[in-house]
Each structure stands twice: as structure tokens, then as C-alpha cells.
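Notebook B, p. 112. Complex prediction, attempt 2.
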Amino acid sequence: MKRIVIGLLLICANKVIAQKMIADTETLRISYNVSVSNDTTRPYKKAQNLFLLLKNNQHSIFFNYTKFKEDSLFQEALSKGMAEEFIKNSLKGNNTGLSSLYLGYTLFYDIQQHLYTVYDQLFSQKYFYTEKEEPLIWQISSDTANFLGYLCQKATTRFHGRNFIAYFSTEIPINEGPYKFKGLPGLILKLSDEKNYFEFACSSIEILHTATKIERPSQLNRIKTTKQEFSQVQKIMFENPFNYLNATSTLKFAPTGPNAELAQKRLSTPIPYNPLELE
Amino acid sequence: MKKLLFVIILFYYGVHYSFSQTIISGTIKDEQGKPVSSASVTISKKNTSLILAFNITDNAGNYKINLSDNEDSLTLAVSALNYARIEKNIAAVNGNYHFTLTPKPTELKEVQVKSPPVWQRKDTINYNAADFKQVQDRVVGDIIARLPGVEVSPGGQIKYQGKPINKYYIEGLDLLGDKYGIANSNLPAGAVDKIQILENHQPIRILDSIAFSDRAALNIKLKNNAKAKIIGRAKLGIGAAPLLTDDALTNMLFKKNLQFINSYKYNNIGTDNSIEFSSQNFSDFINAMQNGAVKNDVVNLVQASPPPFSPRLYSFNNQHTITFNELIPLKKDFQLRINASYIQDLQKQQTSSVTKFYLPTDTVIIDEAINSREYDRKLQTDITITTNTPKIYLNNLLRFQGSWDHANSIVNNNTVVNQQLKNPYFNLSNEFFLLKTKKKYIQQFKSYIGFVNLPQQLYLQPGLYSTLLNNGNPFDALLQKATKQNVYTNNFFTFIKRKARIGSSYKIGFNVQEQVFNTGLFLETNQLKTAAADSFQNNLRWHKWSVYEENNWTYEGNRWRISFILPINFTNIHYTDAPLNVNETKSGILTNPNLNFNFQATPKLNLTTSFSYNKDFGDMLSVVKGYRLKNYRSISNTDAPLSINNFWSSGFSIQFRNPIKIFFTNLGINYSRSLSNITFRQVFTGDLETLTAYLQNNNSENTQFNWRINKYFYKLKMNVGFNAAYSFGSSRQLQQNTLVNFSNKNYLVSGNATLKVGQKLSIDYTGNYVTYFSSVKSGKTGKPIKSSNQKLSLNIYPATQWIITTSLDYYYISNNITQTTHNFFNDAGLRYKPKKSKIDYELKCINLLNQKSFTNNMLMNNVLSVATFPLRPRQVLFSVNFSLQ
């Protein structure tokens, strides 16, 4: 009931609807509001980011638009001829800190080969690895709900140790969705796990009529790795950021001063981490 | 409501299950007969859209659906993007259905939620302080350090997403500038309502839409009940032995028309509270250095070299610190800020030291027992007026620094020498900064002007240097007066431009220095002062001006980064000392290029190399012709023209990182050479040294190798690091009329390990081993010093209310003069804060093993010094911290 009411509210209150035709060569741009509880002891504390899903007939890409905007703002500043003094610091460190530690990934998907290339980073270091798509087994339920004016049907699946609930609409006949969730007979407009740690809510669907090529992120200065290796390092970094930083950078962290013990405690404190893929 | 009913009905039908399996399969092709992949094939109950089962076609266009529902008649639908949808009613039996799709653009409702998506909100993140506050927290800084993306460096610098913040606002106002440590470590955690992070904050409004800022600012929003009244913190600490106390009181007010933070702190436990006043901006300091706006005494006391650890173990202090910060918004977008700090400290120190000078003919041994009392009073006042509007940015800072320092010291060195030093320092300066923007570049104008005065003197009893000063006849006392005054100004324009990958900036400016150095040496006999000969007096006048321009280019490629700086200046120096017949002029064009390459060969491998050349003239103190006393056993003069110094430096480093294996290694080589046309002559008469600078080329060289390696062991959860360094160099000095070549060698090996045992215990180990060799071509030298330091620390976090810390330090020093020493230090601490309390308690034990003294060794060229410092005895301190709000 609640879902329906929210769905109805969304239709009535704040939506622009336009009928558009999509041609074969065009690209669909779908945005998702992603909210994640990284600290399971304080699940109400959520990181909010906007992700975009771009899809054409060959590839799709799912990336953090909030982060991309930071990068592109920077590029824009550069091309406008901005004062070096004000931006050279950002060139030195491509460090975007903690928020991108959680949600800094980009998934590039090859539709023909069912192959993901995952681009991610830990502090300033960028990585990439490929991963074969594992087909999801969806249980279709008869529940329906309305999202963004589309009638959606509920489906559930188990994905790397968590149970997810998706709402998809056959009115958008593409088998896509946020993150690695796909393979339903329609676009996923809403997805969350049963504990609501991860929520993906579609906030816009657009057709890009100008030719948009879906490009891979730059592989320059990016280390090629495997999924297994990457998650191992990621785990170390979150559990013991002090050790990770000390072992991989020229900087040395050694707290001194009147509050040294508190600083030491902070550095030794793990960064709360709640990976979407548990297993 | 209708929809809900619909859902219920559908649900009702949906629960009809049967265990029979029906398989429906087929192939989907397009009109050309090519398979259509990624098409959705769905089965629903006849004439409804509710899907019972589905499949997606593979690359060959095949689908296969297992149906377990027991419906009589079904609808099969095929849909794919840009094909017409096909529906077919089928029976619920096994069957093959093949379809051919006809192209048809898919119609789509484009939707967009109007409510602003995340990226359109202003780049401000609000954090509720209550969500992040923990029981242990005392001040706002404790909460800030816990916010996502925020790090606080040991020196107190706050970083957001790895970059230092550019402003620290309280209720939207910048009360403290870059000395935000005062608020961060004093504002009670309980008074804070929200902490806002203003991402991409451009503090200079004129640049708001022009220059992108990658920095963030912090804004502290206070609870309403904390805004209207004066709030604060207090600390009371008491301990033994002797009687120890560590107290603090801070009060503050944050209103719209007035903000202030005032604090008073006192301690005699060896803590230096003046660190709080230190600026987080380093470039200011460099600029001040260049203009003599940093206290650099012209006479001083001989001091033993301090131990290689924190002064809190050996500093016998008695320190008061007061700070006063006030901000008043004025009319018309102007803001007035006054920041003042005052430090008063009485330090008592009793050291004994042995210094050996290995000379070509003999060895001079100086054995000193020093008993000193230093009394320092320092005041700094900054008055800042700022206007920051979208049209103009103007900042004017008027600063007064005063230091009223004096010290008494008794040195026992066969004879007892009583020293009295007065070393005050005054500096008044003004800094003006104006910023304007044009379409394609940014224009800056900066102007510094200042005045420095150092009226200092050193009084010695009995009279020394009698051979040199009084034909060998003894006298009662010796007084060295030395006054240095400096008026300076530096003004420049900068234009900054950037085009895609190439950035350039141009700077033109001029600076002027007018300096006076007056010294007088007086002999005292029977309370009667008589001036020493003319060669012991200076009346030096120094005029220096230069015009300069500096071009700066950088190129950023994908893998390359090259920067080239080419400063060129024309300098003219004229100095006179009429009584000593000095009247010299020197001028010339000086070029100081600097080239830097950085190459990222692969994501894991980075290479850097740099070259620089620097040429400059000596400063005023390098042309002091008359003799002057620097301390009780050193007298010096210059018998040479203005020195010209050349400095070459080059470096290369290679760095390999494999973050996946958590492995890091770095190898660096540095070579530097300097050439000056001045050499020093060192002559000893007994213990007393005379240094004379004279014209002769002097070359010195230094080469350094450094290697670091670091590895994390996954299984042990342990981080292990290792560092090795080797350096060697040579330099020359004329000693007792013999030119001596020194050569130095230095080895260092160090290691560290960090082990984390669960969330409640962490163990840290660092250790190093150093050997220092020095040799002189003539053969005479001190034996190498070997030293080592090992530190083990243990932190335990049993529950949120408690922190337990303990550490053990071990120092080993060996040389050929004194006995090999082994020193152990043990500290322990306990901190407790009850839940929901405004008070917390802390117990600290320092030097538990009650080490009495520490002996430190230093070897520099032919000088070996061994200094013994008494340590603060075992002490226990209990303190209580209150929040006043």
C-alpha cells in the first residue's frame, strides 16, 4: 500500500512526462539515486550518490555521476584556462577520499560477450579487472507497484550472499538494471536488499538523440588486477587503513602531540565497510 | 484503491500452484532471419500483463521457459527494444514457438523526477553532531576527525578527501584564519549542533565562478542555547613530584555581531601549549624568513644539543599561554579580526657537556657544566581587515611581534663564567593583498613592508679573551652589545594563465632592504666600561635593492609532468662601515633555474628527476668586518668581500608500488655541491675560538642514497617497513692555519612493524640503528658514534569509555669518550569518561622507571659533543576536564 501511494505521489506531484520514440542507434540514459549504509551499526547514516546507466545496443555503463561531475568540473576548469595556482594541487593527487572508496566504481558491460570490466579505486590508486557475468536466478512475484508512472512487477533474487528485491517494468523492454542486476524482461526501476542497506531508485529515464558513444574509462595509470585480489586489498584497506597507507605510500603516519593516543586510536579504527557482494 | 484491489486479485491468482512442468521454447529472429538476442519472452495469464515466467534470448536468439503454473490459457509475449511487440495466446502445454520481429521504434515515456537530484543540491553536506559524537569526545575536533572523508594530521591540520581544508568557519565567520587549532581543540563537543562540509569551496568570492576549487571548508553550527551565551572548557590537573599542575580555562562567544575565543593555560609538566598557536600555512613562514621577520639572535648562550625525543621529558618549564581572538563584522562587507597570543615561560636547565675539537696539531677539549634560567615573553598581535565581495578581494594584515627574552647562565669550564643575555626582538609588518580577475587571467598584487629591531646584548663575568682584547691583562667583565635593524619592502604583480595542458605565470616585482648592524665590545674594570679597540666595533650600513621577474611554465601530459622555473633578478648591494674603511658596492644579474621531470612509466613505476642551480650574494652578517662575540667562547669577523655562493643540486628517484600485494619500494639518489668564495679560519686560544672569514674558494659536496621498502603481510595482519640510508660528503675549513678537508660518512638502518590484534589492541614497534663516521685527511678524528632507538607501544581500547596506553622506549649510544649508555623510558596513561557526562578523567604516568638523566652524542666534522641532560623525574598526573555550557 505504502509503495503504491508513494508511486502515485511520484506520478502526480513531481514528474515531467513526455512521449519519445527511441531509434536503434540511440542511447538510453537512466539515473538512479543510490543510498548505501556503509556502517551496519548505524544503518541510518547513508551515503547518497547519483549513478547513471547508459545503454546502447552494444554496451552499457553504470557509473557514479556525483563523482564524475567532480572530475568533469575539473576538466572544464582546465579547458576554460583556469589559473594554475588554484588547480595544480588537484592534479598532483587524484585522491578523492572516502566517499569514492565506497561508491567510486564504474561497470562497463559488453552485451554480446556478457562481460563486465570493473573500474575502481582505493584512495588514489586506480584499478580495473574483468568479470564474467553470472546469470541471476530471478523469482517472479505477483506483487506490483508503480514507479515513475510505470507499472512494475516484483522479482527477487539472491546475489553474493544477500537477498534483493527488484521492481521492473516490461514497458521498457531492456534487460538492464543498476549495478550487476539485469536479466529481467524489463528495466529495473527500484532495487533494494531485504535489510535496506542498499537502495537503488530510478529517478529519470531519457533518450539521448545525439549520438553518444559509450566509452571505457581511461586505463592510463590504472593497475590491472583480478576481482579476488582487488577485494582482498579492499578488505585490508577498510579494516586497517593505517597499515594500508603506511605500506603503499611515501607518507609516514606517526601521531604525536597532546592528543596522540586519540589520533592513534582513530588511525587504528577500521573504516566501516559493508560490501554489496558479501561472498 | 482500484489498483490495490487489482493487486489483491492478482495475488489471489498467483498463489495457485501446481507441480507439473511445462516447457516452452523457441527462436526469435528478425526479418532478415538474423537471431535477435536480449529479447524478452514472457508468459502471463491470458489477457493480463502479470508475468508468470520469462526468459531472455541468448546470442542465437533461443529461449526456453520452464512453467510450473497450472493455467489453462496463457499469453506469450515477445518484446525487444525497437521491435514491435508480439503477443500470442497459447495453451499450457509443452511447445515450440518461433517468432519473427518487425522493426518499430519503441515508444518510451521519458520521465524525470523534478525534485532536485543529489548533484544539484548545493555542495554542502550537513552532519548532525549527535550522530557522530562518542562518549570519549571532549572537543569539536574529536567529532570532526570521525566524519566521513575527514582526516586530521598529527600537527592538527584538517583534511577532507585527502586535501587540506581552506577555511574553518564558526557560524559562517572566519574567526581564526589558519590557526583554527584554537577552536578545534577548545570548542566543547556538546555545544555543536551540526558540522557542515562545504565542498569545492572558493573562499575568495571574486573567483567563485572563475577558479574551480578542489578544497572544502568546514562550518560549525552551534546549538541555539550555546549561541547566545559564553561557553567554554576548563581543565584541572594535579600531580607529583615535585608539585605539578596543568590547568586551562577557555571561554568563547559566537554571536552574529561578535565572536571571540579567549583562553588561558598554565603548566609545569613539560608540555608546550604554544603549539596550538602555530599556523597551518607554511608559505607565510618562508616569506617571513626571507625578510628577516623571524627571530634570529645575534648573540646567544652556549647550549648543549638536546636529546632526540620530545621535550616534555626534559623540559623544566613554567609556562603561561594566553590567546585572545575577536571578530567584528563592520559595515559594507568589511570584517575586522584581532588575534593576539601571549606566551610566558621560565625554563630551568642544568646540563653538562664535553665538546672535543679535533685539530691538526692537537685536540681541544671543552668541559662545561651549564646552569641556565631562560625567561621568555612573547606577544603576537594580528589585525586583519578583509573585504570579500563578488567584485573585489582585499586583505590587509598588520602584525606586531614582540619578544622580551632574557636569560642567565653560569658556565663552569675550569673558570666559572657568569653570562647574562638580553635577546629581545620586535617586528612590525604589514601585508596587503589585492586580487582582480580578467577574462583570461588572474591578476594579483601583493605588498609587504616591515621593520625589525634586535637590540641585544651579552654580559660575561669575568672578562675573557684578555690576550686579544687587553694585552693579556685580566679584567672584570665583558659586554657585547649588538643591534640589528632592518626595514624591508617587497612588492609584486603576478599574472596567471592556463591553456589546456600548459600553464604559465609571470611575476614582476622589486624589493628593498635597508639594514644597520651596530656592535660594540666593552671591557669592564671596577664598574668602569671602556670600549675595546676599533676592530671590535661595527657600524655597518647595508642597502640592497633588486628588481626581479620570474617565469614559470608547467606542462602536464598523460604520463609526463614537466615544470620549469626561471627567476632572473638584478641585485645591487652597497655597504659601508666608515670607521673600518669599508665602502663596497656589488651588483649583478642572478639566474636561478629549476627543472623538474616526472614520468609515470607504468601505473606501478614512477621516475622523478630534478636539477637546480642557485647563485646569490651573502647577507649582511657575512660582511661584518669588526670582531664580534657570538657566545662566551666564540668570536668572529670577516676579512673578505661579499661572498658569492653557488649551489648545484640534482636528484633522481625511482618508485615502485604494487598496491595489490601491498608492497612499496623507493630508491633515491641526491647529489649537491656548493661553491663559495669564502673560507673560514678557526683558531683556538685555549678554549676560546676565533672564526675569521677570508677570500678563498670553498667547495663542499654531499651525496645521499636512500632506500625504503614496505610490505604488508595478509596472514599476520602485520605491516613491516625497512629503511636504509647512506650518505657521504666533504667540506673544507682552515684550522690553526692548516687547510683541513673533512669527510663524513653516515649509515642508517631502521625498521618498523605494526600489528593489530583485533579491534581492542594494537601493537607498534619502530627501531633504528645509526652509525656516524667522520674523518679528517690529516688522520685525527673522533671514533664513530653508534646509536640505536627501539620503541614499543601498546594501545588497549577495552570499552568506549576507556583508553589505556603504554609505551617502552630504549636508547643506546656508544662512542669512545663516555661509557656506553642504555636508557629505558616507560609511560602509561588511562582515560575514562562516563557516559552522558560533561566531565572526564585522565591519569598519566611519565618516566615510570625514573631515569635520572640522558646523555646525547653528536659528531659534526671534527667536533664531537657529548651532552648530559637531567630528566624530569617519575611523575604522576591526574586531571579532570570540564565542559562549561
